[in-house]
Specification:
By secondary structure, the protein is of the alpha/beta class. The protein contains 12 helices and 14 strands. α11 links the parallel β13 and β14. α10 packs parallel to α11. It is elongated and about 70 Å long.
């Protein structure tokens, strides 16, 4: 078999089962062998083709030449008293990414990073403290989940990842093709078998990609990082709003709902004396009226480099009550990791600063 050098040492975790089926023809294997290989790798944890005994020796040798099973190095781990785990992982090019495990009563939720750094520039967020260096591949996202599963297993935990959210560092829809591939990978019943309804993608509002995502009808959940209900305020904290103002965003939301018949979650970080008044709540009611979505109010994790402060609990509760009284479904997000570097990007920024000193 002639080797295609431009594909040698390809990260196995980047490859979907359908792609593997097509590749196996080059290795004189039947397409159904892709299912066997996925079972070895994802169900049995075997990362050595030599141990895959139901595949011919010749084919194993070819697969070894073509694929590698890279492992993300663990730079540091922080464990919160509430059981939250934040890992800082090192990629092959020495960039760092964060991934976080949050424990809910319904399962273990892993928050995945989609880019090295972020260019969205939200004024309250730690993720954008370091600008985007590159996109992550689908395999690098998948490896974050595998790394967390391996860490849990090494600590004798039997219940591993059940849900995945793309809410870590980066803007998922700025890395659209790779996050779609990642969704397909983790949803595969022979990979991590994470159900589509257990997968959530969050975007700050890249309108064309919301529409494109709707057309895919993937059945996963979509969250909009809203954080302000008027263009005047949203422009102050989210530069994306200058490109896609709220009218365009809400038109895209309505298109998404009509196309998928699925509701959206509106994420709303509560910032003291900025977006947490009764008037802000009423503006939010007006903005999302006529959509099926519900509001997730998020207590703010302070970031040293930004001036915003957390809204007092009583103000958050009044805000939520104002929404509920007007038939807008709203919840206050449970806090995780308050005793560690909880904000997305905080741990990475700290480590990068230390490495540069």
């Amino acid at each position: 078999m002639q080797k295609r050098k431009n594909h040698l040492n390809r990260n196995f975790y980047d490859v979907t089962r359908n792609e593997l089926e097509k590749l196996l023809i080059n290795f004189n294997l039947k397409p159904y062998a892709a299912k066997q290989i996925f079972e070895w790798v994802y169900e049995k944890g075997v990362k050595d083709f030599d141990l895959m005994t139901n595949i011919s020796l010749k084919s194993r040798a070819a697969l070894k030449e073509y694929f590698v099973f890279p492992k993300l190095a663990t730079k540091s781990v922080q464990t919160s008293k509430d059981g939250t785990i934040k890992m800082l992982l090192t990629l092959h090019d020495n960039h760092h990414v964060e991934t976080v495990l949050m424990r809910y009563r319904y399962g273990n939720v892993v928050c995945v990073t989609t880019q090295v750094g972020c260019n969205m520039g939200c004024k309250f967020c730690a993720s954008g403290l370091l600008k985007k260096q590159r996109d992550l591949t689908a395999g690098e996202m998948l490896q974050q989940v595998l790394s967390m599963n391996e860490y849990m297993a090494s600590n004798s935990e039997t219940k591993l990842t059940t849900h995945v959210v793309m809410m870590g560092i980066g803007e998922p829809f700025d890395n659209f093709s790779n996050i779609v591939r990642f969704i397909n990978l983790i949803n595969d019943p022979k990979s991590l078998a994470i159900g589509a309804r257990h997968i959530t993608v969050s975007t700050c509002g890249i309108v064309p990609k919301i529409r494109e995502f709707a057309d895919l009808k993937l059945q996963v959940k979509l969250a909009i990082s809203l954080h302000a209900a008027t263009d005047e305020k949203r422009n102050q904290i989210m530069p994306i709003n200058s490109a896609y103002p709220l009218k365009d965003l809400m038109d895209a939301v309505k298109y998404y709902e009509k196309t998928t018949n699925k509701r959206i979650t509106y994420e709303y970080i509560m910032l003291k004396d900025f977006n947490d008044s009764r008037e802000d709540a009423l503006a939010l009611v007006k903005l999302i009226k006529g959509t099926m979505g519900f509001v997730n109010l998020i207590p703010y994790n302070s970031v040293d480099e930004h001036d915003f402060e957390r809204s007092p609990n009583n103000r958050v509760q009044i805000f939520a009550k104002t929404l509920l009284e007007r038939n807008v479904r709203a919840t206050v997000r449970k806090e995780f990791g308050s005793d560690i570097d909880a904000a997305c990007g905080q741990l990475r920024a700290k480590e990068e600063k230390a490495d540069g000193e």
